[in-house]
Amino acid sequence: MTYLIQFFSNRVLITAGIAWLIAQMIKVILTMITSRKFDFTRITGTGGMPSSHSAFTVALATAIGFTDGFDSTLFAAAAAFSIVVMYDATGIRRSAGQQAVILNKIVDRLGKEDLSETGKRLKELLGHTPKQVFVGAFLGFAVAVIRHLILI
Hints:
mainly alpha, 152 residues
């Protein structure tokens, strides 16, 4: 029971979680504005504006910096982790999403919608544009700074 209490009182983890939740809520709101419908998959889905992965990891690193010092080894590891996640989001995952778009179009044009291997179309919204990653990173940083100022 003590571990559970410690887990839910971890300020750094809570800060990162708040940044992720805000980013996901923004995605839902933006989807509702653009498509005029509620898309439940945007609550937990990947891709889109802003990057919740970037928001989470930057908030995590920034909160660690405030807690343990920006010169700490833990902050350095968290910052490096954030950079890798953001690079992956704009590189590999974005490319995979673009490939999924092309493959889905090929399947549609051939008229052979035998999706027995996966049971569905390939997921196209995987990665992020650099702008989506930047906005997510800024959001994560802002959440961590605000939480730090409130909790001092």
